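Input:
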Amino acid sequence: MTKSLPLQGIEGLSEDDSAQLQTMFDECVKREAVALRTAIDGGMNNIPRLLRGPVKSMLFR
Amino acid sequence: MSAGILTIEISTALTKLARTLDIAESEVQFLSHLDVAALRELRWRITDELNAADAKRLAGVIAASKLVPVSLAASIGEKWFGPVLCARLVGLVEPKRGGQYAKHLSVDFMADITTRTDPRAVGDLVHELDLKAMQRIAVVLLERDDYLTLSHFVGHLPPEMVVSILAAIDDNAAVVRIARFVEDLDHLNPVVAGLSDERILALVAAVQADDLWVEGLHLFAHLGDDQIKRVAVTLVRQDAVAVVAALEAFDRHGLWDQGLHLLETLDLSDITLFADVLLDLDQELIDAVVDAIDRSDAWPTLIKLAQVADDLGESERARLREIAESLPDKQVERLTEAATDAGHPDLLERILHA
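Output:
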């Protein structure tokens, strides 16, 4: 479960609208998280072996 | 605001929201009942939440990227990270380093990043980018008909930079379409101020040729008085036919507020230049202009035209008399009243005996 979107005070937004938006937002966050993991794995495999340790520690500290 | 303009604004706001969520526009149509301000607020809040979602991990990516050569980091960015994640990094990267990365990225990829970038995050990075590179990105986006992305940055770049980028875009209709999507139209004024008179004329010609009057007049209405006057005077002095086309468009699209504003900005010498064209309008259009003036109580515009009557040729004076004589009694009363208030109590008499 991702963070709740702060939708209070947006005029005209119904509960149904808010629920649909939250679902879309959750899916978007999930897609981006997967893309980020894939990108980091791909990037790690493409940097010189010597740098992988320091880079990894920066990425996952 | 006309229904056409409102539809444009809502549809633009929905398109931007769909892009933020990386989904098809059809998926956000359920929000079309919201007004533009609500849709804009919604988009900024979602953007902020998305930026925050992976902020820690992305900060790690930025830190790690400093350990590898710039060209390698750029290559990994283009090959593995892709435009969506790189767009998230735009606001986190040090501007100088960002400028160095840009030198190693393809124009197509930078255009992809630009499409996904939160324009508020760009900041000083734009000062580190080569103008030619930005122009090339703009041209690529234009080739993709991506007016929305180009418009997104107008309010977030210095106006002189926008003018320089626009210099690379020779499709004037495209420039109008880009401007149509600009969120805060107040930002257009300094940009228009930086355009040459020739470019202004070319833009109006494109509006005429592509029938972009709704978009064009909407933008025109948001200019400051200084630029409205400049555009009006430029047109009157160099292309009076375009002014007539504009007046016809004001009438066709029910945008007389903008039309009267254009006429109001002209001073007496410009009105004299333009009087023969104005008086040559079809009676139907003349009636529409006078009715709009009456509705908005904008009589000073007509008073200005009457004031230059003595400088007109015989046929123009005769036409002015004809128009004055055709006014309904109530309009004559209101015109006389307004002329008296403006210090010209004998105005109508002067017209009738000019």
